[in-house]
Write a structure and sequence with these properties.
Blueprint lengths: L1 E4 L2 E4 L14 E4 L26 E7 L2 E5 L1 H8 L9 E7 L8 E7 L5 H14 L9 E9 L2 E10 L2 E7 L17 H13 L11 H14 L16 H14 L2
Helix pairs in contact: 3-5
The structure holds zinc ion.
Length: about 250
């Protein structure tokens, strides 16, 4: 990816925050060969379709030797009641401290339809959003098993709703050292001048223009019209020259 600040361009690599450890994931196996049945319930050994009720659930720690478990055994392993996954809250932290952890997935929570759940949801929301100072808002933290793995996550108020985010275990976080050349103080000040010259952001105004271009390109292709090719991104040159030019662009809007 390239960061472009008024033409001050920097090439960067995008590194994922990491993935949770996947030891012991439960997969589908065929009843005929105890071979992987994938999501399509198709025996990868003999190529036969496996009837839904005959699909086995297993864990393959040693390649080719899955340990098969019954539904009841899996349920008990997951520690889940009939109702499904339980997020058991066992701690709280100030909501703004969640940024210290690597988020995995985020969800809006909504109450199940009945009156009691709606009321309870409202009560939790009221408690989470109790303070006008966001720094004092609670995030409630706990662990939950979702589908394939056990996660830790937090519920907190966002935009008048209860948000639930799962996070990487700190043990799974990558400790990649980032390699860069430190800037002089004067360079940092110049950069802040540049940032100050950029207009305030309006995220509400962002639209998916790529999707629009794609639709246009499909129409053009179907009508036999020529599709315009965009020029490639220019490589980076002298930093200070680029910074001065970027500041000038901000000033005169060239
Ligand atoms: Zn088979």
């Amino acid at each position: 990816m390239q960061i472009d600040i008024n033409g001050f361009k920097t090439d960067v690599s995008t590194n994922g925050v990491g993935t949770p450890s996947t030891t012991g994931l439960i997969h589908n196996y065929s009843s005929c060969c105890k071979a992987s049945a994938g999501k399509q319930d198709f025996c990868k050994e003999c190529g036969k379709e496996v009837p839904k009720e005959e699909v086995l659930k297993g864990v393959e720690l040693v390649k080719g030797e899955p340990a098969i478990f019954s539904q009841e055994e899996i349920k008990s392993l997951k520690g889940t009641a009939e109702a499904g996954s339980v997020l058991k809250i066992d701690g709280s932290i100030p909501a703004n401290q969640l940024s210290n952890y690597e988020p995995l997935k985020s969800y809006w929570l909504s109450p199940k339809k009945d009156k009691s759940n709606k009321k309870r949801y409202g009560m939790i929301l009221a408690g989470l959003a109790r303070s006008p100072a966001p720094a004092e808002n609670y995030a409630l933290v706990g662990k939950v098993i979702l589908r394939d793995n056990e996660y830790w996550g937090a519920i907190y108020e966002q935009g008048g709703k209860v948000r639930f985010t799962t996070f990487l275990y700190v043990d799974d976080q990558r400790t990649n050292k980032i390699d860069y050349v430190e800037a002089e103080q004067v360079e940092g000040e110049k950069m802040r001048q540049l940032f100050a010259s950029i207009p305030p952001a309006q995220p509400e105004a962002y639209e998916n223009q790529y999707a629009e271009r794609l639709v246009e390109a499909v129409e053009a292709r179907l009508e036999g019209r020529v599709i315009e090719i965009m020029p490639e991104a220019v490589s980076v040159g002298n930093e200070m020259e680029d910074l001065e030019r970027a500041l000038l662009v901000a000033k005169v809007g060239v």
